[in-house]
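From: lab user (bench 3)
To: helpdesk
Subject: output format question, protein + pyridoxal-5'-phosphate

Hello, I'm new to running complex predictions and I'm not sure whether the block I got back is the full result or only part of it. Here's what I submitted:
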Amino acid sequence: MTITPPGRPTRCVIDHRALRWNLKQLRAQVGPRVKILSMVKANAYGHGAVAVAKTLASAGSDAFGVATVEEGIELRQARIKQPILVVAGTYVEQLPELLQHRLTPVLHEIATLKALDQRLQQLKRTMAVEIEVDTGMGRIGFRGSEIDAWLPVLARLKAVKLQGVFSHFSDAESANEPYTKKQLNDFNRVLERLRAAKIIHRASHMAKSAAIVTEPNAHLSMVRPGLALYGMYAAPGLRKQIELRPVLSWKTAIIQLKQVPAGTPIGYNRTFVTKKKTLIATLPLGYADGYRRLFSNRAQVLVRGQRAPVVGRVSMDLTTIDVTDIKNVQQGDEVVLLGRQRSGIIGADELASWANTISYEIFTSIGARVPRVHNFI
Ligand SMILES: Cc1ncc(COP(=O)(O)O)c(C=O)c1O
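Helpdesk reply: Thanks, we reran it on our side. This is the complete output you should expect:
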């Protein structure tokens, strides 16, 4: 049952059946022996981390990935029991929270790794951690090519227990990309060096959504999908290999209809002026909800299954569309900003193209004030 909050009709509807379906498709790609760590950072890519993680946990997700300690605590407080990896930075001052909530930090460089080990020894505690190896992203992580410098540090750790080693692909969206092959080879070489040095760890992982499909050799002991769980393709070419179902729809409704004559300016700075008699509908959402200002005079929405253009500037809380061509349109009509309506569809990739961005940014920019309505059946 979908329970829609009363009042402002702007909301995201999250389809948990599609979420379970997507996890099942990913499971089919990797087989039963490879673990799946579901990336639910950034509020599960804007879909609602707690509800999403609960569904994925009950559908067989083996672990979860978040960016921050705070995101991990939110999951623990919601009784998520699976291992939770904190991928985007470790701060030694958060050690009490990491220990209390059994979160697994990722270490990226020597200084923090040593500081963590020392602090744990002082507390007479041990802790499982993972390390990230930079094989070609050039951001955080121990550089694979500098393993001679950091491997001896790993070997001397006392309280820190290495549980996993991972790396991240830069460009895995198409199959047979030489850079992807090179990253995987470099990572495998690092794993061999660790094995040779008898630095034992249980998990090694590398594949995000795209690589799960394009690079089966990168499945290793675990994969880390994000975008695919939410039903989106990291590249159009992947459609042929896996059937994913979009999870999030973004909807609102018309709160006012206004017939205006030719020559009427619409919105801030008069960027749109009607050329003929026009029916303008106003929608109760704006850039403060994540409906980007770049959509002004570019994006389209669905009304009664038909497309209607956004006209004038998107304001902070309101957006105007031209519904002159929509037959029988009425105040209160549902408007779909992202998703399906009758035979019409606006995908996250299309929405992203109107703001020169990617679906990831569209999802994670949907504002906190937009209720997520979870449909579990
Ligand atoms: C370390 C790490 N692993 C996995 C992912 C998931 O990537 P995707 O959403 O493309 O599957 C991300 C996302 O940015 C990430 O930062």
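A quick orientation on your result: The chain is about 30% helix and 25% strand. Let us know if anything else is unclear.
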